[in-house]
Amino acid sequence: MAVMTALGSISSLLAVGRKPAKDERIAIFSDALNHASIIDGIRLIERQQEAVVFVYKHCDMSHLDFLLSSCSIEKKVVVTDSLFSMDGDFAPLPELVELRRKYGFLLVIDDAHGTLVCGDNGGGVPELLECESGIDISVGTLSKAAGCQGGFVACR
């Protein structure tokens, strides 16, 4: 939630004392089955008129590609869980990285269920799927595999 609100506040900071115009906002593209904390953060920045939100069908890269190609907003962020806890499936991170190269968006993943569990070194789903270098921001928790409190936000 904190990462999403921080990203959304960028458009307000750039607007300097006024609400950002629609074309100055950030476009957020969110997987339909993202964790509630991501959705709550997105709802907050949407209410504050800092972002325009697009929800793409779960793991549907064709739908995301269509939405990205139809969006005229310059600043784009795609956010997804890396491992969806309710369904147990992985986000198609390699395909997301390819779309990132095509459209130049910021790729944010919530790797709470993959950190220290997936990958040879516990590097999470990006390590498992061999696409770490294509992830811009990774959010994780220490309360699952590490068995303690806290979390982290890591970037390239």
UniProtKB/TrEMBL annotation:
Annotated GO biological process: biotin biosynthetic process; sphingolipid metabolic process
InterPro entries per UniProt: Aminotransferase_I/II_large, AON_synthase_class-II, PyrdxlP-dep_Trfase, PyrdxlP-dep_Trfase_major
GO cellular component, as recorded: endoplasmic reticulum membrane
Keywords of the record: Endoplasmic reticulum, Pyridoxal phosphate, Transferase
Transferase as UniProt keyword: yes
Co-factor requirement: pyridoxal 5'-phosphate
Domain of life from the UniProt record: Eukaryota
Chief localization: endoplasmic reticulum
Pfam families listed in its UniProt record: Aminotran_1_2 (PF00155)
Reaction equation(s) it catalyzes: L-serine + hexadecanoyl-CoA + H(+) = 3-oxosphinganine + CO2 + CoA
Membrane topology: Single-pass membrane protein
Family per similarity comment: Belongs to the class-II pyridoxal-phosphate-dependent aminotransferase family. BioF subfamily.
Name of the protein: Aminotransferase class I/classII large domain-containing protein
Species assigned in the record: Aegilops tauschii subsp. strangulata
